[in-house]
Amino acid sequence: MVAQLLWILAVYGIAVALVHIMHARHLRRAGDGTGRRKHYVLITSNHERQVEWYLRALSWYALLSGTRVRVTVLDDQSYDDTLKIVQRLTHMSGIELVYGTLPSGDSTAREQHVDHDEDETIRIDLRNSLEVIPIPYVQG
């Protein structure tokens, strides 16, 4: 009896999740530029252990909320596999992912990589652990 009830709840939960995902995709396709858009600019430096979780959290946020999300990852001289991980995740659903390196010594470098036609641009410098807070589903 309990097992059958759990199966019913599981199927119901999956159906609810699918309806939300389909609705989010419908909103994204129907958007003619007037829809909600967020552009996250992540500045990384040796974040191979965290960057995949940050990108997956943004992907889930985009899929579940119906928000169109663009992510630009700018790497600041990482010597680990941060950029390889980002490159592997470029085809992740829900987000548009662009990556590159942050030119050293140029304080305006952040500005030249950001499109100003987005509705909302959120810059997060992951080198400072307190700036992780604006990423949905990530606890600082």
TrEMBL record:
Residues that span the membrane, as ranges: 6-27
Q: Which UniProt keywords apply?
A: Membrane, Transmembrane, Transmembrane helix
Q: What is this protein called?
A: Uncharacterized protein
